[in-house]
Backbone:
């Protein structure tokens, strides 16, 4: 069997009530994560109208002058909410910042509840009120879809279907409105800079809504790079480091990147995408599951909580 294949599955098969379709979904979905760390899912819940509305509001915001965008950059929240400007985020192990800027939306809770949990408050631009409306709508849809996809993963791992529910309720998930800004020529690219340097995600799983341009690549088990090109109505799901640790590497957190266009005309065009980073609550114990530790595969990772791991990685990314 070729393990360098990313499965394409239909979310409706898991929630349809048809037990045969559900079982097949769980097997294909889980196997794809064990082999490649990625899967592609159709019928994910965000409508085409909502997707286009989000992209429109993203384009409007990122086309605003820097002095307006920077009003919503709070250096005190380690890049967890609001606007994060260009030349800030740097992939782990790299010294050159990625060629991107982005906007983060988190749980929409009261300031008092955020303070009790330890989350920063959301920041929304007063010049663009529709960003809050459509941003939170997509956030909640992906949170619901992600909760169900984690149920499929739990069943693949022979855990109780609701194993992750209490671990992600009011979790520190983040919706990222992402802009790979256009460049007029290759001289504008700092040496070694790419749109997103090779990295693994921090969280449990990521739900990525189709970018409007190619460039996403995942690293195979052989160390080769392969293109990940979903159809416009599909989303890409990948395993993050937290879930890989928790499963002792059974589910792969695959290194991936977004490369610069080779074609100069494509380089001059903006690229927008929207990843939803599904995080657990900070207290979640990421210690390796006993069922994933065997004589053939001894424990690979030290015990750590999700909050401790997130803090560690934010420092590595130079966001904190």
Residues:
């Amino acid at each position: 069997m070729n393990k360098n294949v990313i499965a394409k599955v239909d979310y409706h098969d898991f929630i349809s009530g048809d037990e045969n379709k559900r079982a097949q979904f769980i097997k294909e979905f889980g196997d794809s994560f064990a082999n490649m760390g990625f899967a592609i899912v159709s019928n994910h819940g965000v409508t085409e109208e909502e997707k286009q509305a989000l992209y429109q509001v993203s384009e409007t915001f990122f086309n605003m002058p820097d002095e307006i965008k920077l009003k919503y950059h709070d250096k005190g929240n380690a890049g967890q909410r609001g606007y994060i400007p260009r030349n800030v985020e740097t992939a782990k192990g790299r010294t050159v910042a990625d060629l991107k800027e982005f906007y983060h939306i988190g749980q929409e809770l009261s300031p008092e509840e955020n303070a009790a949990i330890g989350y920063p408050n959301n920041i929304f631009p007063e010049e663009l009120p529709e960003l809050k409306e459509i941003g939170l709508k997509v956030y909640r849809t992906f949170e619901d879809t992600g909760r169900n996809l984690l149920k499929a993963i739990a069943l693949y791992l022979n855990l109780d279907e609701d194993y992750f529910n209490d671990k992600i309720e009011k979790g520190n998930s983040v919706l990222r409105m992402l802009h790979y800004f256009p460049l007029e020529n290759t001289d504008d690219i700092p040496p070694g800079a790419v749109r997103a340097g090779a990295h693994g995600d921090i969280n449990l799983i990521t739900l990525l809504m189709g970018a409007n341009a190619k460039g996403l690549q995942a690293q195979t088990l052989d160390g080769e790079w392969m293109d990940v090109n979903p159809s416009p109505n599909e989303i890409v799901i990948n395993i993050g480091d937290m879930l890989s640790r928790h499963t002792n590497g059974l589910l792969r957190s695959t290194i991936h990147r977004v490369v610069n266009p080779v074609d100069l005309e494509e380089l001059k065009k903006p690229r927008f995408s929207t990843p939803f980073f599904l995080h657990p609550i900070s207290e979640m114990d990421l210690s390796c599951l006993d069922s994933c530790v065997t004589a053939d595969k001894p424990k690979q990772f030290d015990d750590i909580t999700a909050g401790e791991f997130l803090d560690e990685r934010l420092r590595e990314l130079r966001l904190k």
Summary: The first strand starts at residue 7 and ends at 10.
